[in-house]
Amino acid sequence: HQHYGGNRNMELMQKWAHKILEWGQLLGLIVVACATLIAISHQIYTMALVMTVTLADLLLLFIYLEVLAMVAMYLKMGKLPIRIPIYIAIVALARYLILDMKEMDTW
């Protein structure tokens, strides 16, 4: 009988551990979404302040929107297609190259 009770306790502990991880993951996604919304607001405020919108600004906003889409997709489906982080990486790389090219001297 003790053996059966031990298995039941283990299953209960695993169930609780899984729930705690799910809640932690949800909390993390909420933090990422809120931080992204704050970053979007800050970027829009900065663009309005200098009254200029550059391609780098637009690409940064696009990255932020992709992060929000990634969070939404993960919440909806419970999994994340690999293409979303790849899109984010490609746009981030393009933004980096654009900013880096501006800083390079002409040959």
Structural features, described:
The chain has 107 residues and is mainly α. The chain contains three helices and no strands. Helix 1 runs antiparallel to helix 2 (55-77) and helix 2 (55-77) runs antiparallel to helix 3 (83-103). The longest helix has 49 residues, at 2-50. It is elongated and about 65 Å long. The mean pLDDT is 88.
Average pLDDT value? Answer: 88
Helix content: over 70%
Number of strands: 0
Number of helices: 3
Radius of gyration (Å): 22 Å
Largest sheet: none
Distance from first to last alpha carbon: 82 Å
- Regions with little confidence, pLDDT below 50 for 5+ residues: none
Strand content bin: under 5%
Overall form: elongated
**Helix-and-strand structural type:** mainly alpha
Task: Spell the H/E element sequence.
Answer: HHH
Summarize the structure.
By secondary structure, the chain is mostly helical. It is built from three helices and no strands.
Which helices and strands occur, and which strands form pairs?
Layout: H1 2-50, H2 55-77, H3 83-103
Helix pairs in contact: 1-2, 2-3
Task: Name its key features.
107 residues; elongated; 3 helices; 87% helix; mainly alpha
